Amino acid sequence: MEILIWRNLLDPYDLAVKELITKFEHIRYEHKARGIYCPIEQVTGRVKTISSILDKMQKKKIDFSELETRLEDIAGIRIICQFVEDIPKVVNLIHERKDMTIIHEKNYIDHVKSSGYRSYHVIIEYEVHTMDGLKKIQAEIQIRTMGMNFWSTIEHSLQYKYKQNIPEHLKEKLLKSSEAIVLLDQVMSQVREEIMDAQNSMQLQANLISEILNNIQNLYKVANNREVLKIQEEFYEIYLQNDLEKLERFHKQLDIISEGYRAQSLNFENEEVT
Ligand code: 0O2
């Protein structure tokens, strides 16, 4: 048996986790920037600890030579969604990607585990560039709602404490609470439209305010100070009214004013050249 240098083995997985988190967070960023609801609420990731790898190898009788092929979750990404309906949307997002190939999927939402565990797993093949060249690795993406995540985090701690031998009375409670999570997710789905509307308006308002303030800041460089001050006062007045439509109208007007100044400064530049 060769000496296994764990750092050499795990470094590409560490890179994959970092890259994948960045990529999924970027999806969130793009949605937010465009004021579109994002099915991804939160992204986390981790490289499995050596002790957890050793435990799983022992449990599943995996030899060191087959470690990277049989252990699919050395690199693990967790995507948390607000609503159950978001989960297939996230799965579709993964299907559409050209930089990750799906190996297989495990649907523990339709096929709940006997423990009560619910989640959707997508196992992907992902390529990382290292000093030694390209390396294809496997990664497990767990997709679940906030409720499902709350349950599995608690249950995971108990599994760790009781080393797979959770007492019966606790198992029962866990199963009951897992069903309660299903109910919670169902109720949240019923008010989903309203929640999404509220969140979209909040995001839209945040984007508008940041664009308006940016415009005012730019105007400050080229326009008359008194005029900019007046615009700023008008903005605060509208802001306090908490009326998204008025804010949108103000944003459009401000755009026209800024355009005017831009055109003026272009004319000025042209005059200088000639
Ligand atoms: P950790 O510490 O999270 O890394 P398989 O041969 O496919 O049946 P495998 O590889 O265990 O066996 O796959 P499975 O069952 O899909 O589990 C993969 C991961 O899902 C687990 O990794 C857990 O993270 C999570 N998971 C699966 N079942 C449960 C469960 O009943 N409760 C909780 N809380 N999580 C679960 P690890 O390595 O077991 O753990």
Count of alpha/pi helices:
9
Give helix % range.
55-70%
Bound molecules: ligand 0O2
Helix/strand structural class: alpha+beta
Give the number of DSSP strands. 5
Major sheet, described briefly? 5 strands, mixed
Rg on CA atoms, Å: 26 Å
**Proportion of residues in β-strands:** 15-25%
Oligomer: single chain
Shape: elongated
Can you put this structure into words, describing what you see?
The N and C termini lie far apart (79 Å). 62% of the residues lie in helices and 16% in strands. It is elongated. The protein has 9 helices and 5 strands, in the order H-E-H-H-E-H-E-E-E-H-H-H-H-H. Helix 5 (146-162) packs antiparallel against helix 6, helix 7 packs parallel to helix 9 and helix 8 packs antiparallel against helix 9. Strands 1-2-5-4-3 form a 5-stranded mixed β-sheet. The protein has helices at residues 6-33, 50-59, 67-70, 86-96, 146-162, 168-190, 192-222, 225-241, 244-273, and strands at 42-47, 75-81, 100-107, 120-130, 133-145. The mean pLDDT is 92. By secondary structure, the chain is α+β, with helices and mostly antiparallel strands. The longest helix is centred in the C-terminal third of the chain and has 31 residues, at 192-222. Ligand 0O2 binds at residues 48, 52, 56, 72-73, 106, 113, 115, 117, 121, 152, 155-156.
